[in-house]
Structure formats: structure tokens, C-alpha cells
Structure to design on (189 residues):
């Protein structure tokens, strides 16, 4: 089993997204987790970081995130879709952790074996595909943010949580399928 590093962004430990995280790591034997809300990660790129010369060291919290990624063969991202993208907490994590010299030239060279993106959504996948949001989210995460930094990548949307209000039984069944999918994906890594 490959070591997997999971980057998780949801503020509520009772959320569906947290259930997805639990199902996913339940299928892994060797993993670490960056719980961005739980750890109080500071997601705003400061003026000093923006101006940092590439040869200067990165802040210690950024270095810790990069070390966790460097130690893993597989990277996983678990988060809810908020306004057709990841939460600002995770977007800010990319702003700060994907630094020059680590995530792009000069000097970057670390390539993960695989990156897996698991996101929950209120809309169903069919609805997100019809609006074009699914394709846009996939492009932003896999083509841009992951890009050549992983040899292969997966983008999985576990959608339809809006059904919880209108069709509780339908949502319970769909949710069970989603959690089984997350666990099966983990076991395949
Ligand atoms: C601020 C906010 C924005 C959201 N934007 C979207 C969206 O653009 N598309 C969508 O399908 N669901 C959207 N949702 C619904 C969440 O994706 C959904 O509640 C979540 O994935 C599953 O529930 P959880 O919060 O219990 O994990 C949004 C929810 C919040 C709180």
C-alpha cells in the first residue's frame, strides 16, 4: 500500500464531506492527513510571502505541508464544492504551498505517482456536467493545480446532497454508494 497524504478542507466534523474522508482513509493502511480547518491553517498569501525571493526559505507551516506531500506517493484532496470550486481555505493552501521551486520552476521535480480529488456537491454530477461546472472544476484542479505534478490523476464528484431535503431515502441510498465508492477508490491505490 502506497503512503497517501490527504488534504482535507471542511469546517464541520458532522458533515457528509467528513464521512467521505472517514470512508476514504478507512480503505488505506498508510496515510497522513492535513486537516486544514482543524489545524487552523492560515490560507492567505501574505505580502511578505508574495515578495519572497525563490532562494529564501518558505514559512515553516508551508514547509511542513510540502514535507508531507514529499513523503507520500499519492496525494488526495477531500473537500466540498463551494461556488463551483474548492473552499477558499483549500484555494489559499494552493496559493501558499505551491511555491516557486517546489511546485514550478526553477528547481521543481517532485512528481507524485497519483493524485485523487474527491469532492462532495449539492448538485448531481449530471447537473454539474450540464452547466459546464464539472468540466471547469476538473480543469482547474487536474489540468492546472495538479498538472504534471502527478503521473496520473482522478477527479471524482460525489454529488446530489441537495436530495437530503426533498428525497431523504434517495439521498441515503446515493450517500451509501458514494461512501462505498470512496472506500473502493482508497483500496485501489
Ligand atoms: C458556501 C457554499 C457554497 C456551495 N456551492 C455549491 C456549488 O456551487 N455547487 C454545488 O453543487 N453545491 C454547492 N454547495 C453545496 C455543498 O457542496 C454540499 O453541501 C456539500 O458538498 C455536502 O455537504 P456537507 O457540507 O455536509 O459536506 C455549497 C455549499 C456551501 C455551504
Amino acid at each position: 500500500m502506497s503512503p497517501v497524504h490527504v488534504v482535507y478542507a471542511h469546517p464541520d466534523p458532522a458533515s457528509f464531506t467528513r464521512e467521505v474522508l472517514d470512508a476514504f482513509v478507512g480503505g488505506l493502511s498508510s496515510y497522513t492527513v492535513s486537516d486544514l480547518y482543524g489545524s487552523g491553517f492560515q490560507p492567505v498569501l501574505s505580502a511578505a510571502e508574495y515578495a519572497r525571493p525563490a532562494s529564501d526559505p518558505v514559512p515553516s507551516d508551508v514547509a511542513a505541508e510540502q514535507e508531507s506531500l514529499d513523503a507520500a506517493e499519492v496525494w488526495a484532496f477531500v473537500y466540498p464544492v463551494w461556488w463551483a470550486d474548492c473552499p477558499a481555505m483549500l484555494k489559499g493552501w494552493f496559493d501558499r504551498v505551491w511555491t516557486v521551486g517546489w511546485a514550478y520552476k526553477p528547481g521543481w521535480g517532485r512528481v507524485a505517482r497519483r493524485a485523487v480529488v474527491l469532492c462532495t456537491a449539492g448538485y448531481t454530477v449530471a447537473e454539474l456536467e450540464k452547466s459546464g461546472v464539472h468540466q471547469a472544476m476538473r480543469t482547474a484542479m487536474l489540468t492546472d493545480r495538479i498538472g504534471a505534478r502527478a503521473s496520473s490523476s482522478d477527479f471524482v464528484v460525489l454529488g446530489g446532497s441537495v436530495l437530503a431535503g426533498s428525497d431523504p431515502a434517495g439521498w441515503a441510498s446515493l450517500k451509501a454508494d458514494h461512501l462505498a465508492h470512496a472506500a473502493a477508490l482508497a483500496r485501489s491505490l
In short: DSSP finds eight helices and five strands in the chain. The chain has a mean pLDDT of 95. Residues 117 and 141 are 8 Å apart (CA to CA). The beta strands are 4-8, 31-35, 74-80, 114-120, 153-158.
